[in-house]
Design a protein that fits this description.
Helix content: 40-55%
Structural class: alpha/beta
Strand order of the largest sheet: 2-1-3-4-5
Number of strands: 5
Shape: elongated
Largest sheet: 5 strands, mixed
Radius of gyration: 41 Å
Number of helices: 7
């Protein structure tokens, strides 16, 4: 038995002449004849005009413009990429030694960005850090804080350090006046450790409003 496709081809070959003759007869007997669409003349290719328009100076200028556009675009993308290396561009940093209390994080960031005119703020958080910096008895926690401050100052080139305190501190449960006294001692300690960097003490009133205290 012949395959299906072989049978189909044979059948079509047999009917093709009959179908052609039938179509010819019907066309002759039909009164309505669709008019033929006249062929459009395609203008001849004129290489002279193209050669005149694409002269060597024109090609050079167009390539130069493309190169300049690509260069400008690459610079814009590079400068607006927040993840490029710090050493590629001198970005401005400041440092905040703040309590870990979540209430006092957000108010400090815009305050210090405006105070130090810095783009970014390195945040160093501990429970009641003014106590650690004022008493200097907890060596482990003090070294932890100072190691992070060193990175911010020496690696990021921090332009200023702010040490913060706030009322109702769970990590340093003493009255406000005692905390403010510790804040002054903490500022003195940091100024001695980093004499070339500006150091300020912030008191965050009502846990919302940072104020320069010392």
């Amino acid at each position: 038995m012949a395959p299906f496709w072989t049978t189909l081809v044979s059948f079509w070959t047999t009917l093709a002449p009959f179908g052609t003759n039938l179509a010819t007869r019907l066309h002759k007997k039909t009164a309505f004849i669709v008019p033929k669409t006249p062929k459009r003349k395609i203008p001849a290719f004129n290489s002279t005009k193209i050669n005149q328009s694409l002269t060597l100076p024109a090609l050079f200028l167009s390539r130069k413009r493309v190169f300049q556009s690509c260069l400008v675009l690459a610079i814009i993308i590079h400068q607006n990429n927040p993840y490029y290396c710090v050493k590629d561009k001198m970005m401005s940093f400041c440092t905040a030694i703040n309590c870990m209390d979540g209430r006092v994080q957000m108010p400090v960031i815009p305050f210090l960005q405006d105070y130090f005119k810095a783009e970014f703020m390195d945040s160093i958080t501990e429970p009641g850090p003014v106590r650690v910096l004022a008493q200097t008895t907890d060596a482990a926690m003090l070294n932890s804080i100072m190691t992070r401050v060193d990175i911010s100052v020496n690696q990021h080139g921090s332009c200023g350090i702010a040490v913060c305190a706030h009322p109702d501190c769970a990590g340093n449960p003493i009255d406000d006046d005692a905390q403010k006294a510790q804040l002054k001692k903490a500022v003195i300690f940091l100024k001695e450790a980093y004499p070339t960097v500006k150091v300020v003490g912030l008191w965050i009133e009502n846990n919302l409003h940072p104020q320069e205290y010392c």
